[in-house]
Amino acid sequence: MLATTTDPAKLPLLSGRGALPVDTASDDLVAQAMRATGGAGVDLVVDHVGGALLDDLVAAAGLGATIIQVGRLGGRRAALDLDRLAYRRVRLVGTTFRTRRGAEHRAAIAADLRERLLPAIASGRVRAHVHEVFPADRADAARDLLRGGGATGKVVLSYGG
What we know:
Layout: E1 2-5, H1 11-16, E2 20-23, H2 29-36, E3 42-47, H3 53-60, E4 61-69, H4 82-87, E5 91-94, H5 103-116, H6 118-123, E6 130-135, H7 139-148, E7 154-158
Parallel strand pairs: 1-2, 3-4, 4-5, 6-7
């Protein structure tokens, strides 16, 4: 598994979680992905960045790979090499939770998470890295930390005990 960051201070956190960390500010993501996969390319990408990075993700993808585009921290527009996208038969899936409407739809997502994710959390296979827990009355400080990019994991608001 490869994991990316633009902050060299976050590299040890990624490697400590079992990932091969790639600093996309200084490393060649495509070369690292190809080296790590013996030239085959990666099978699955969850892209939280978007923008100019998306074309590199297509270049790092293997034949028949899937890229799930979730976030747009790097911008909402990207230029893609459509030949490369087609030759590699990459499935590009865009998703957001902003347009999820209706109680039934949200209930189905919650049920799916309970069924699939909670057992992995309970067994320890999936663990969130918590950077800091803030009491609810310090929500502004939590927001400032997130906006400043200094968090190396989840920022949690606590509403009691």
